[in-house]
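INSTRUCTION: Work out how this chain folds

Fields: amino acid sequence; protein backbone structure tokens

Chain under study, with its fold:
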Amino acid sequence: MQTRTLGRNGPVVSALGLGCMGMSAFYGGRGDDAAAIAVIHRALERGVTLLDTADMYGPHTNEVLVGRAIAGRRDQVFLATKFGIRLDPSDPQARGVDGRPEYVQAACEASLKRLGVDHIDLYYQHRVDPQVPIEETVGAMARLVEQGKVRYLGLSEAAPETIRRAHAVHPITALQTEYSLWSREPEENGVLATVRELGIGFVPYSPLGRGFLTGAIRTPEDFDADDYRRHSPRFQGDNFARNLALVEQVRAIAAAKGVSAGQLALAWVLARGEDLVPIPGTKRLAYLEENLGALDVALDAGDLARIDAVFPVAAAAGARYPAASIGSVHR
């Protein structure tokens, strides 16, 4: 397994991580825990070390699942989880953000219990709480490091100034945000430049565009009734058709190279820099193997130019989150 270093002086992890969210939440269908655990075990066998989860996936059930999967294998895993998004059990669409120091402590202890571990390797603030100064939240996270409950700190979907303020309180090891061929905002909004300046690792989530860049999704009817993507602007109406046309061009380039569209999309993210560690998610063994094959796809300058020509910055149609959620990103 190829490895990469998270940040200038951070930990060494597998060059490709595994996002576990879809095993329990958001992408529809009933979860099959046995199949999901088999995927995690196979990933570990293949040398994947970075596993990514969060307390709000499920909620809570994904951490329990990951904890079951890594029992007896803790030394093989660099375990990342997140706190900060609070769900309302009575209203699945309602959510809030909580960055209060007392909540940071309580959330961490609850995650440790669900995961069945004595420490978390990388603990992210899932979303920035605009009502709590970032210095207070990160100060509480730093105390978790002092207590031995957390090794490294991270932020998710934070804006450049927030990243700088957080990093001044305690070193931030990783910044997680959506980044893929169809979500290239970090190149333009200063996030990528900021983390590189500060020596912070960059962890792209949804590097396959929530599955769309694989070319396997041909119509909105491919989604289960409870799949979150049915309510995402990029998967609706004219946006779906326009984005599918972009993916068709990616598939053509991939076919010419003898790889899948998903492998080409992942290889593109990996080629953006050695400081990037994408975390594609899957709950199927076949897709795990396909994703890992992207590590063997070499893209030369001509390939990258062809991809950029058909899928330039801001080419995707539609916002990446519904209106109710977009306000919580890049804060």
